[in-house]
Amino acid sequence: MTGTGRAWIELDMNNLRHNIKVLKSFLPDRCSIMAVVKANAYGHGLVEMARELNKNGIRSFCVATVQEGVELRKYGIQGEILILGYTHPEQLQLLTRYRLMQTVIDYEYAKTLNCYGSRIAVHIKVDTGMHRLGEPWVNIDNILRIFKFKNLDIKGIYMHLSAVDSDRQANKNFTQKQIDDFYYVLSRIQKQGFALPKVHIQSSYGVFNRPDLSCDYARIGIALYGMLSTFNDTKEYNIGLRPVLSVKARVSAVKTLSAGETVGYGLDYTTHHRMKIAVITIGYADGIPRCLSGGIGYVLINGKKAFVVGRICMDQMIVDVTDIENVMQGDIAVIIGKSGKAEITACELAEKAGTIANEILSRLGTRLERVITRSNRSFRCNSAVRKHA
Ligand SMILES: *Cc1c(COP(=O)(O)O)cnc(C)c1O
Fold first, then answer.
1. How far apart (Å, rounded) are the C-alpha atoms in residues 224 and 56?
2. Which of 207, 237, 267 is the last residue of a domain?
3. What is the Å distance from ligand 1's center to 221 Cα?
4. Among the four 101, 160, 163, 280, which has the fewest Cβ within 10 Å?
5. pLDDT digits over 133-177, tens only?
6. What domain count does the chain have?
């Protein structure tokens, strides 16, 4: 197989298909998945994932930047593409040339877009308390004015929930208030005689924690890739999602050291006893967090754990294989994924690194080649246990 020489990502597209089916089972019939493929599809590979999503009937995408949208079009991705972030006025011509929809960040930005010269397709974002992007919901008059702008082709209106991943009562109340304020804005728009464009609110956690909402789209990222942001959530929600991605690398050398020898940079590690180590062809430049150095992180070789020894390097790392038999140059080490009966999930790695799976995934380097695989497990939908239902 090509692409598997040094370090690579395997994408199990049957697991993606499974996740789409599971997610659809949570959504009302009229609600479509808007696949969030920003940040190189959470590190999976933008074009590889979008193509496969297209093949599985997904026709709507969200990206963070105009460049990501252009990339999708250049590779022939079909359907609508919404840019969630800010596009500088110098780059507005790309929106029309590549048929991209732009988020209206606020009222000021709506004026800029309206003055551009040709009609731009947009979704209006309403800020209901996240205080990131969106026109504040209290400025209803501004939002109504945007609907009168001649050069804006208003395709959608949306908001983002900022506390929907938590079941604390205060957070649940906040979520409800966000939703109520948004729907109040929508009612005022209708009262003014404007037809409502497409409406969307939920991201992954929103789908599971507020399945009662009935929108036109759900903007789904992390769940499509087969997990929630943390190990605990993924376990507790028990939705039966399957990770799409594995990360693997080669063993480039195996060495036996006697007691008292040092390993890696900075004399950080000294062997206490006779020890066998293996050098692995992946490092922090590939997205492996350097904070997993010094015995915190591990990889799987032949189904067994091999802990990191010393400091993780830019392109390589060294692991302890003293207790693993027959490790040889050219063997495969699993950094995320399954090896024999053992498995390391992106969530577990994230927990060790003090972050969430989203960050671990999205930082995986472009140097890793993406290889498409298709496991032959058949589809079985878990009885969708909902934590907060
Ligand atoms: C990233 C993002 C999403 C997707 O969130 P997930 O939790 O990964 O599903 C949805 N909406 C907006 C505005 C985002 O920035």
1. 12
2. 237
3. 6
4. 163
5. 999 999 999 999 999 999 999 999 999 999 999 999 999 999 999
6. 2
The verdict on 255 and 329 lying in the same domain is yes
Say yes or no: 285 and 218 in one domain.
no
Domain limits at 299? 245-344
Single-letter code of the amino acid located at 100: L
Which of 237, 264, 284 is the C-terminal boundary of a domain?
237
What is the helix, strand, coil percentage profile of the chain, to 5? 30, 25, 45
- What CATH number is attached to the domain comprising 270? 2.40.37.10
Q: What is the pLDDT of residues 3-19, one digit of tens each?
A: 899 999 999 999 999 99
174: alpha, beta or left, given left = phi > 0 and alpha = psi -120 to 50? alpha
| Euclidean distance between CA atoms 66 and 86, whole angstroms | 8
Assigned domain for 367 exists: no
Q: Buried (b) or exposed (e) across 262-300, using 16+ Cβ within 10 A?
A: ebbeeeebebeeebbbbbbbbbbebbbbbebbeeebbbb
| CA–CA separation, 317 and 327 (whole Å) | 15
Q: What is the pTM of this model?
A: 0.95
Same domain, 72 and 194: yes
Q: How far apart (Å, rounded) are the C-alpha atoms in residues 101 and 83?
A: 6
| CB of 219 shorter than 6 A to ligand 1 | yes
The three-class DSSP label of residue 281 is coil
10 closest CA partner among 298, 364, 351, 297: 364
Residues 198 and 99 in one domain: yes
What is the rounded average pLDDT for all residues in the chain?
95
**CA 360 / ligand 1 centre spacing (Å):** 15
**Does ligand 1 lie within 6 Å of residue 220's CB atom?**
yes
196 & 298 share domain: no
Measure 376 CA to ligand 1 centroid, in angstroms: 29
Q: Using alpha carbons, select from 355, 372, 371 the residue that is nearest to residue 363.
A: 355
